[in-house]
Amino acid sequence: MAPQVDAPKTVEWQGKRVPVWSMRTVDYGLLLSQDPAEVDNVLKACLEDGYFYLDLNNIDGRRMLQDQQETLKLMQRFFEAPIEQKNEFGLISSHLGYEPQGSRTGAFGAGTKDGYEMLKVSRDEIQRGSPKVPSPIKNSGDLGILENSIGSCNTITKVILSALSTGMGLVGASRYENHHRNDKPSTTTLSMMHYLPSEITGPKEVGHQKHTDISSLTLLFSEQWGLQIRPPGTCGAREMGFVEPKKGCAFVHVGDSLRFASGMKMQSCIHRVVPFDPKEHRYSIAYFLRAEDDTMFMDSEGRYVTAGQWHDQKFKAFTDPWMYQLQAPKTMILGGMTEDGEDDPAQQKIEPASEPSPVAAKAQLAPVFVQA
């Protein structure tokens, strides 16, 4: 069972006190050196919680923080452009292009729409030197900023994957990073999101719906409040609570693909975005590291699917109208994670599950990533 974690504090939101959930902090510099204690720290975070802060306040991480600031400036310029320019190519594919606000279900479920617009840039296309990006970026010479940001994010997430492989006792082809090779096609994406003020979108088009990510790992940067998570476990009513922005840190969480690859031992993070300050423009940067398209694993329905298939099926569920989302497998939007909490009283109650120790996890794990 996941450990019982008391919220260290609460914050006022929508007329009530809402938890601000605490979490582990992982030092990127130590992780880069494969420090045994830090490898154990990140492994426990993924096995027990599914998320952690990544401290980048060191010589190895500061470059990423600089790239993040440059990307933030780029985003603000891009999203100020007219819709005709931003939507020059539309959504070219599910992991590439521009999505206008109102394309998906919103933060508060049935009958609502999302309150953000998003630009997605494919790592594969950047690597090939032929990215399809709208003219507000191409014409302003910002491609170099995107290349730097994607390169930094890719390095950081691969370091985390490598540490998790080591912590799980994986060797050779079974190591997680060997199913995330740079020269193999994947839907790995840098996504830049702009959440509009509620006074612009209206009360029924806000935030980002509750879900788990398709990815293996998500590396997220935001300096503003709004991200909420639901900790795993059965510790009473574990309601959705906020993640406090932490200077010099990224928020990292496990996605479905890595949970599946770990034999369901790792926790996939249930999260959503809500308007903490309904009057502000909110910006976030997310790097979704995804497995190679033809990598196969067993999903939460017990099916063998490729990473590419899982991506396409879940993306369709994301973008389907809410009435069709209700008809999809119950494990699709939340990746098989279950929940219980006062903010979602109709949700199925979690069944207690035993928590494997890192040593036991190593012994029990069979390689689940398989090349199709």
TrEMBL record:
<dbReference type="Pfam" id="PF14226">
    <property type="entry name" value="DIOX_N"/>
</dbReference>
<feature type="region of interest" description="Disordered">
    <location>
        <begin position="336"/>
        <end position="357"/>
    </location>
</feature>
<dbReference type="InterPro" id="IPR050231">
    <property type="entry name" value="Iron_ascorbate_oxido_reductase"/>
</dbReference>
<dbReference type="GO" id="GO:0044283">
    <property type="term" value="P:small molecule biosynthetic process"/>
</dbReference>
<keyword id="KW-0560">Oxidoreductase</keyword>
<dbReference type="InterPro" id="IPR044861">
    <property type="entry name" value="IPNS-like_FE2OG_OXY"/>
</dbReference>
<dbReference type="GO" id="GO:0046872">
    <property type="term" value="F:metal ion binding"/>
</dbReference>
<keyword id="KW-0479">Metal-binding</keyword>
<protein>
    <submittedName>
        <fullName>Clavaminate synthase-like protein</fullName>
    </submittedName>
</protein>
<dbReference type="InterPro" id="IPR026992">
    <property type="entry name" value="DIOX_N"/>
</dbReference>
<keyword id="KW-0408">Iron</keyword>
<dbReference type="InterPro" id="IPR005123">
    <property type="entry name" value="Oxoglu/Fe-dep_dioxygenase_dom"/>
</dbReference>
<dbReference type="InterPro" id="IPR027443">
    <property type="entry name" value="IPNS-like_sf"/>
</dbReference>
<dbReference type="GO" id="GO:0016491">
    <property type="term" value="F:oxidoreductase activity"/>
</dbReference>
<comment type="similarity">
    <text>Belongs to the iron/ascorbate-dependent oxidoreductase family.</text>
</comment>
<feature type="domain" description="Fe2OG dioxygenase">
    <location>
        <begin position="185"/>
        <end position="291"/>
    </location>
</feature>
<dbReference type="Pfam" id="PF03171">
    <property type="entry name" value="2OG-FeII_Oxy"/>
</dbReference>
